[in-house]
Design goal:
Shape: globular
Helix content: 25-40%
Number of strands: 9
Number of helices: 6
Largest sheet: 7 strands, mixed
Distance between the termini: 52 Å
Amino acid sequence: YFTMMSDTREDIQFIGNWKCKGCGTTTDVNKEIKKPKHKCPKCGSERWKYNEFRLRDPKLRITGKRDGKFIFNGKSFILEVKSINGMQFAKLVAPKEDHLVQANIYMRLDGSPYTIFLYECKNTQSIKVYLSSKDESKIAKHIALLKDMNKYVDKGTVPPRISGFPVAGECAGCPYYQGCKRNDT
């Protein structure tokens, strides 16, 4: 729908990476562009499908793929589409905190000042839309942690356990929990 909207409105440009529907050839994965108007150089098809664009920060050693990006009236917006169950949807009055963290990391990597969240209820397909502005304070502790962890990676050493191990909230979802629990070092 965003691609079609971009095709029919001059004030909206949906940009990213594009894949030919005819042969699968992609545009340059390192450059974001609006939907190609030209034919695919490989097969001649004029049908292009949006590909999520990969964002990278080699210094922080992180990557991510946002759901979309568009320019509207000269302003850049990241698009994040989230689906949630009916009970969560009914209680939703603002973007979820972990989604704000994700979006702010994307805005930092991308330079866009805004994110539009489109929440879809899995039960009814109802939607709620929220606009969020860039807020570095939402990700400051995450960026500091990334920098700290990268120092351990560079030294080839294991970081100390987090405070509160093994009952800290972060431990519950950690994929390394069992190994960390078994090994004192």
